[in-house]
Amino acid sequence: MRARTENAHKHEMDLKKTKLGRFMNCRVPASKRYQPTEYEHAANCATHGFWILPSLLGGSVLYFLSMDQWHRVAAWLYGSGLTGLFVTSTLFHTAAWKISHLRKVEQRFHMCDRMAIYFFIASSYSPWLMLRELGPWACHMRWLIWVMACIGSMYVFFFHERYKLVELLGYVAMGAVPALVILSMVDRAGVCELAVGGVFYVVGVVFFKSDGLVPFAHAIWHLFVAVGATVHYYAIWRYLYVPGPLLQTSR
After folding, report:
1. Domains (ranges, CATH) in the chain?
2. How far apart are CA 161 and CA 222, in angstroms?
3. Is 218 marked as binding a ligand?
4. How high is the pLDDT of residue 18?
5. Upper half-sphere CA count for residue 167 (Cβ side, 13 Å)
């Protein structure tokens, strides 16, 4: 009876694997990296590669809307971080798809991809920290956030993929701590959009950890990142860069 049950379970798993084999591989232990299918590889590349050109154009728009030096620096930092995220992610997933046999090369791309996330978070906060009036202590976050990005990158360099949960918590902490500082702004216009974008990132993490459970889970995570970044870009453009007369007219 027990053997029959085990055989039935095995048959059910084999059937499931046959149906989803093209779209999802079996889940792997936390200590190993999930291997996407050919379709998942293509989706991983496309879902971030598509946003490279829009991020370049978006950063350029902010730069040309800049009213002074600080606006230009903030636009350059934000545009570089935004574009850098999509470029490094696309390069890594392309390497993982096409040259996975070159393990050391793929590993370097993966490390750059993880490091880019820290600098993307820092650059996303920079316009708000640089262009809005902050409290006497909160203003130190303008440079502390870049220190955090450097520390996170050093962690990736020395302990890449060794403690995955610690790395995930590092990203979440870096995304949450500066948000508390933003609340000290005298002008809080745009905070609602920041919160909405943050929700997309947080919900997306569920899919980030669902490889082998949900087909195209990582590509779905990419889409959540893209939507969150789009909402944040809109908030930066709308509340920090749109000229005063246009802003007043649109209200």
Report:
1. 39-250 (1.20.1070)
2. 19
3. yes
4. 47
5. 21
